[in-house]
Amino acid sequence: MEAFLVSTSIVALAEMGDKTQLLALVLAARFRKPWPIVLGIFVATVLNHALAGAAGAWVTTVLGPQVLRWVLGVSFIAMAVWMLIPDKLEDGETGAAPRWGVFGTTVVAFFLAEMGDKTQIATVMLAAQYSAWVWVVVGTTLGMMLANAPVVWLGERITRRVPLRTVHGVSALIFLVLGVLALTVPA
Length: 187
Known about the structure:
Elements: H1 2-15, H2 19-31, H3 34-62, H4 65-83, H5 101-114, H6 118-129, H7 133-154, H8 156-161, H9 164-184
Helix pairs in contact: 1-6, 1-7, 2-3, 2-5, 2-7, 3-5, 3-6, 3-7, 4-6, 4-9, 6-7
């Protein structure tokens, strides 16, 4: 249960102000069809995070416990620093007409935007830390949905009220604590 709860909360916080959350806002403003967008976000996240979770679980079979502990600790601390750097949506990411409809466009755009993103890397690290990678994937997917679905439905009203700097600071602090714990608490 810890893997699920930690994964959900970390990704929900990490997603605030992330480029995929900005992508959700752009898609919502452009297409004004929330259900296919939310469903597309869900499908893309499940696929992307399942691959990331499997990669994290695989890493635990390759690295010994001491090496893994150091890799995770340093990675979590690096994520803490990365959380303090806000994302910006690059121009042209959603400029094309929806060749595959709103749902298909959302799935492809979100899947690609998540590649190498903070939340995908966090999923890999969390799956490596916890031996229950399925619960990590379920948690990170829920975290993505908690952060992105309201943006699709409520749009810009939410993004104006959420203090993104504070959210990024809290996320960074959580990652820092996880990193320090990974480095100092014996397995």
